[in-house]
Write a structure and sequence with these properties.
This protein has 108 residues and is an alpha+beta fold. Helix 1 runs antiparallel to helix 3 (73-90). The chain has a single domain (4-106), classed as Cation efflux protein, cytoplasmic domain (Alpha-Beta Plaits, 2-Layer Sandwich). Helix content is 39%, strand content 28%. The longest helix is centred in the C-terminal third of the chain and has 18 residues, at 73-90. 19% of the residues are buried. Strand 2 and strand 3 (59-68) form a beta hairpin. It is built from three helices and four strands. The protein is globular and about 40 Å long.
Length: 108
């Protein structure tokens, strides 16, 4: 089970990064559709937009972001990665492995 407080802190940190214009659910289209359907019919609560896996030696965080074309995607990704690493380290969790995908680029 995902720590809701950690997920909330990570989402806030990602959305505060300059150049990030959106945060989307990580995973496959089919997986996301099934999750959304189970939430709509009340079989489960809304899940975080980030995918977080906590293990003994690593904390894996996967995020799908929208980026503004006003900032190079590589710069935005580096800033998001740093923000995630900072939140994870600030909670004394094992170091973060970060997987980021830019799924949308919006005009400036």
């Amino acid at each position: 089970m995902v720590d809701e407080e950690l997920a909330t802190a990570l989402e806030a940190a990602v959305l505060a990064v300059p150049g990030v214009v959106g945060l989307y659910r990580s995973g496959t289209l089919l997986g996301n559709a099934l999750e959304a359907a189970t939430e709509v019919i009340g079989l489960r609560d809304a899940s975080p937009r980030l995918r977080i896996t906590r293990e003994a030696e690593r904390t894996r965080v996967e995020a799908a972001i929208g980026a503004s074309e006003s900032t190079a995607a590589s710069i935005t990704i580096a800033r998001v990665r740093d923000a995630i690493i900072e939140v994870v380290a600030g909670r004394s969790l094992p170091p973060a492995d970060v997987v980021l995908t830019v799924v949308r680029v919006e005009p400036a």
